[in-house]
Amino acid sequence: MLVFSGIDRDLLETYRLLMAEYGISLKKEAGQHVLLNAEALSYMVESAEIRTPDSVLEIGPGPGNLTEKLVERGPRQLTLVERDPRFVRLLRDRFGGYEWIEIVRGNALRILPDAQHSVMVSNPPYGISSRLVVKTVLSEFDRVILTFQSEFGRRLTAEPGTRSYGSLSVLTQLRYKVRPLAILRASAFYPRPKVDTVMLRFDSRKPPDEELRLLKGLLPHIFANRKKTLRAPLKSWLRGFLQMDPDAISSVLESCPVPIDERVYKLSPEQYAKLASFLKVIVRERRGR
After folding, report:
1. What is the full per-residue pLDDT of the chain (289 aa) written as tens digits?
2. Is there a single domain that holds both residue 148 and residue 12?
3. Residues 54 and 136 in one domain
4. Which listed residue, 1, 36, 150, 284, has the most CB atoms within 10 A of its CB?
5. Cis amide prior to 193 (ω within 30 degrees)
């Protein structure tokens, strides 16, 4: 795997001038760190394999270092979503002359899930990682390039039975094929974070469906006690969410197509997909009563 380290001096100087001109200072405690390694920025965009017909979304573009590389690719449309009004003004000054670039002031987590863009490429704040992944899973992107703290990235690619495996692992791997592309050392960012960052690529397996949306609500409940068997949290969910009586719950558990006496963290994403298909029918029946 590629490793990028160090800051590009020209990028740093440009960054400092822009920040001074627009009176901006980043909040390190909020997980705001700007990638100032030119090779890493170029590699992010190259890895997205952006083509002319693509509509691209970038969230939290900040001063526009990654945006500049995206512009060079010339997609059909580029949408920048930035919540800081000072950065919005900066971005409009830098990129407002392009008719195919839309600059939106807003919270990306409120705009997502997205069905309008084929590609997302972003270096988001660490603080929104979990919520961003869930929103990305429910969006209709074909390809996604994102950066996360290395430990968080391991959760998205973790295999069943491992310590990092959890609800986000299942949800993400059912929606996308996820693979790490590169390690970004802390020295490649300013302000410098405490840990290294991983660059991940997500390739769509299938569009978000009813089963995936069901799992979004079900998996956190199941993984709340990840070393328990599936039986207990599933029983609790049937009783609480579907208001089922003991006899009905017993019937569901007996006909469940996945082993309910297996520990939660040992069941594969494919087994959870089978569980969701099974429960979908039951949910429809209960709601139709």
Report:
1. 999 999 999 999 999 999 999 999 876 545 678 999 999 999 999 999 999 999 999 999 999 999 999 999 999 999 999 999 999 999 999 999 999 999 999 999 999 999 999 999 999 999 999 999 999 999 999 999 999 999 999 999 999 999 999 999 999 999 999 999 999 999 999 999 999 999 999 999 999 999 999 999 999 999 999 999 999 999 999 999 999 999 999 999 999 999 999 999 999 999 999 999 999 999 998 877 5
2. yes
3. yes
4. 36
5. no
Looking at the fold, whether 148 and 216 belong to one and the same domain comes out as: no
| Sequence-distant (≥ 6) Cβ neighbours of residue 82 within 8 angstroms | 59, 60, 61, 62, 88, 91, 103, 104, 105, 106
Residues 187 and 114 placed together within one structural domain of the fold = yes
For residue 187, give the CATH number of its domain: 3.40.50.150
- Do 99 and 164 belong to one domain? yes
Distances (CA, A) of 80 to 32, 61, 103, 194: 17, 7, 5, 27
Q: What's the domain range around 173?
A: 2-204
Q: Are 11 and 65 in contact (CB under 8 A)?
A: yes
Asked if 35 and 124 sit in the same domain, the reply is yes
For residues 51 and 59, what is the distance between their CA atoms, to the nearest angstrom?
Answer: 19
* Count of structural domains, the chain: 2
The residue among 87, 88, 90 whose CA lies nearest residue 104 is 88
What would you report as the CA-atom Rg of the chain, rounded to the nearest whole angstrom?
21
Tokens of 160: 């069943």
The answer to whether 35 and 184 are in contact (CB under 8 A) is: yes
3-state secondary structure labels for all residues of 109-144: HHHCCCCCCCEEEECCCHHHHHHHHHHHHCCCCCEE
